[in-house]
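Students often ask why we bother encoding 3D structure as a string. The short answer is that it lets us treat folding as translation between two languages. Here is a chain of 372 residues written in the first language.
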Amino acid sequence: MADHQADELEQALRRAVRGDVSFDTASRALMTMDASNYRRVPDGVVAPRDADDVAAVLAVCRERGVPVVARGAGTSIAGQATGLGVVLDFTRHMRGIVSLDPERRTAVVQPGAILDDLRTAAGAHGLTFGPDPSTHSRCTLGGMIGNNSCGSHSVAWGTTADNVHELDVLTYGGERVRAAQGLHDLPARLRDGIRSLAGHHLALLRTGFPELPRRISGYALDELLPEKNADLARALTGSEGTLGVVTEATVRLVEAPGARALAVLGYPDESAAAEAAHTLLPYGPLTVEGMAADLVAGASGLPKGGAWLFVEVGGATREEALSRAQEVARAAAEATTGHTVVARSEERRVGKACRSRWSPEHLRTRARSSTT
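And here it is in the second language, the structure alphabet:
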């Protein structure tokens, strides 16, 4: 974009929005990257204060053919949070938890709300938000919705799409949409277009999408089928902001276990561990994570084996959680080379031992030992 065009765009945005408009080099540089290797320099950055600001930004950019990128914490690892044009930074102002209803087990959040803030608020009522990416301390709910994020506990509680109830969305054409099940509240243009899309491709939508518990790639167009009551909220989840900008979301909460325990199962090798993983699902684990010996060589506290499955289970009490972990270990005994069952406090020690294998000093030692 030429300098005079950027100046005109900046002035138009400043007139249109109450939020922060930044076109300086430093502000733009902060938005050139996420957690990936991609680098793209935007023309400017806007931190909107509310949905009206978002609508105003979209209108200004639409009139000038300028692309818009909705951004949360920038934890994406494939460049989703980077782009040219104008970046909408939701982490500055639109980051609140609007309401939390323990009885209905729902929460209303703004797109810049941090996952751990929601989990802390829900935890006061014995609840949590199920999906928990490794970036939970900083990732935003808007980013999770855009990417249909999962996390290790998706084994028990599903993906973000499984936990989204309603979405308030602004389309790039300017329509305000309340996305939920059913199409009756949509603007006529969108309602008729979605019905036409689903109606003309019923066979493909019913047979062309694999039934996978963590299918997060591509557009979830099969959610628009009539037998699924045209669940637009699920269809939009995972679309990475390409179909509209989320300005508010109503999400479902789940009951958090009162206690947790970990069954650490040893296997001869990675293949044996991988083959066994699905056989543990009938026991209702919270997580099933795998690790090979070359990643944790020399770590203490692990049972004998060349690979391990870490199976977390929950219970109302510590005793119940330990009992369920022992049940998992017994069920897996025929294929394992050994097992260890630990309660939550002991589980942290096992995790610390594994993490220590990836400390900077350990990595430097491995690098020196492998240098010829």
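Translate back mentally: The domain at 3-89 is CATH 3.30.43.10 (Uridine Diphospho-n-acetylenolpyruvylglucosamine Reductase; domain 2). Keep this in mind for the problem set.
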